[in-house]
Structure formats: C-alpha cells, structure tokens
Write a structure and sequence with these properties.
This protein has 327 residues and is mostly helical. The protein has helices at 2-25, 42-69, 76-105, 112-145, 150-153, 156-182, 199-205, 211-244, 249-278, 286-310, 313-324; strands spanning 29-32, 109-111, 191-192.
Length: 327
C-alpha cells in the first residue's frame, strides 16, 4: 500500500511540475524597455524616431512612385531599387510604430503573439534588404564591368528570378528562426531591453536550452550574411578597378563619389547586423545592441533614398514630372 501511495504521489507530482512548466511557457506579454526609462527623454525620442520614420516612408515612396510613373526608368537597376524601397518601408513599419505608441501611451507592453509576429516579419524584411543590396551590387558590377553584355545578362527573366529567390530564402530563414523561438520556455523575467522584439534578446530571456537557437543564428549569419557581403565587396572591388581606368579626372571623381556613398550605407548595414547577430550573448551589451539595431533597422532605410536615387538626375526628373507634369 505504501508503495502504491508513493507511486501515486510521484505521478501526481510530476504532472504538477509539467503544469507549472506549461504555465511558465504560456506567457501573455513582454515589456519593451526601449532606450531609456527617464521620462525627460521620452518626448525627444518620440520626435526623433517619428521624424526618421516619416522621412523613410516619404523618401522611399517617392522612389516607388517616380520609377513606376516613368517608363524610361523601367530598367533592372530601378526595378531592384523599387524593391529595396518597398522593403525599407516594411522594415521601419515593423518596429518603429509600436515603439512610438509605447512612448506616447507610456505603456511598454507587447503581447507574446505580437512579439512572435514582429520577429518573423522583421527577420523577413532584414533578409530581403540583405539580398537586394547584394543583387544591386551585382547589377552595377555587370553594368560597369561588362556594359556590352548588360542587357543580355540582366534580362527580365533573371531579374524576376533574383527577386523571387530572395523572397523565398528570406521567408524560409525567418520561418526557421521564428519556429526555434516558439520552442523556448520563458520564466519570470519578461523585460526586453530593446525597442522591439529582437531575437537575441528574446533568447537570453528563455529558461530552456538555447544552444540550438544560437547555433541557427550563427550559421544563418555566416551563410546568409557573410556570403552576400563577400559578393558585395567583390562586386565593388571590380567596379573600383574599372573606375580607376577612366581617363577623365572629373568622371573618375564622380564615379568614386557615388561608389563611396553606396559603400558607406552597405558597410553601415552589414557591420551593425553582423555585429549584433554574431557577437557573443554573454559579452553583448543590451544598450549597444539597441543602438546598433537602430543603425541597420532605421538609419539605413532612411539614407537609402538619398544615396541611391535622390542624388540621381533620372529620379529627380521623374519626381519633377510626377508632381508638376513637366520636365
């Protein structure tokens, strides 16, 4: 009888433990701490990020409208540029509006479901940004280094295929990372020291084993981040080599100026992304991670319209025609 009682208590106790673990896993919300808890800084942060968000939306929308309204801009370069502009709008719209609402309402809460959705779409659009920057570098490489074969190489079928592959790979990667987060159990500490549900910060809050999650992040970062970065650097090295052969000093200076501005944005994007996702979680500062995330998630999408197109005479002319109806 004693053995039966002990067996029953052991069985019942194990089920209680399972129920407690299940209750720990089924959390309902997180707290997004943002950059600072000081109330004096909140109006400044709200104004700063609202301004950056509006500039990003308006600048990228202008590019999309200009390219779509001018048939002369229906070329591979501007086709990829409109895709990049659309993705930049989506990146900032995934994170910044929620942060602005939290600052305005003085509530830092985000539901578990909303956090998972934010992770999925943020990784999806960051991945697309990564691929489109690589594709645009390849497009410029072909245009400058192989101008006679440009129309043959960059044909509509290849351009559409490059965009489709970018979407598929980004969607699969984002789905994998999100499913890996769903398997995690969370306990009592539910404060995320960030302005959005950043996946590394989420993993650090987990009670369960996070080794598989970290391995997926590292391998994905090396494969999906390192390989495109190598492609971008190779393309621009060949472009610089071709520009160096230009006999005209003025033409060489103009080409180098454009190339340098492109490389500045590309370097800002890749250095901050790889720094956040490949650094050790144990040594990673949450504040430094948040600042780095602002660089690639907010600043880069805001700068892209100025770097890639608003300095471009064709885009300026198309915008002028769109609004005024004349060149």
């Amino acid at each position: 009888m004693h053995d039966c009682v002990m067996l029953f208590l052991s069985y019942f106790g194990s089920h209680i433990d399972d129920m407690e673990l299940e209750n720990e896993t089924r959390i309902s919300e997180f707290l997004l701490l943002g950059f600072s808890e000081e109330s004096e800084l909140q109006p400044f942060l709200f104004g700063l990020f609202l301004s950056m968000y509006l500039v990003t939306i308006l600048g990228n929308q202008l590019i999309i409208l200009a390219v779509s309204s001018d048939s002369h801009l229906h070329t591979p370069m501007y086709f990829f540029l409109t895709n990049l502009s659309f993705v930049d709008i989506c990146i900032t719209s995934t994170t910044v509006p929620k942060m602005l609402v939290n600052i305005q309402t003085q509530r830092k809460v985000i539901t578990y479901e909303s956090c998972i959705i934010q992770i999925y779409f943020f990784l999806l659009f960051i991945g697309l940004d990564n691929f489109f920057l690589t594709v645009m570098a390849y497009d410029r490489f072909v245009a400058i280094c192989h101008p006679l074969h440009y129309t043959v190489i960059m044909n509509p079928l290849l351009c559409g295929l490059l965009v489709l592959v970018s979407w598929v790979m980004s969607a699969l990667h984002s789905l994998l990372e999100t499913l890996m987060v769903l398997r995690l159990s969370f306990c009592t500490k539910l404060e995320i020291p960030h302005f959005f549900c950043e996946i590394n910060q989420m993993i650090q809050l987990a009670c369960s084993d996070t080794f598989p999650n970290n391995m997926v992040i590292y391998f994905a970062g090396m494969l999906l981040g390192g390989a495109p970065l190598a492609g971008v650097l190779y393309s621009y090295s060949k472009i610089v080599s071709s520009i160096w052969k230009i006999s005209s000093t003025a033409g060489k200076y103009k080409a180098f100026s454009t190339c340098a501005s492109h490389l500045l944005v590309v370097s800002l994007f890749y250095c901050t992304v790889l720094g956040v996702y490949l650094s050790s979680p144990a040594t990673q500062s949450s504040h430094a991670s948040a600042v780095a995330s602002v660089m690639y998630a907010v600043v880069t999408p805001m700068l892209n319209p100025f770097i890639y197109s608003l300095r471009n005479k064709d885009i300026k002319g198309a915008i002028n025609i769109f609004f005024r109806g004349k060149p």
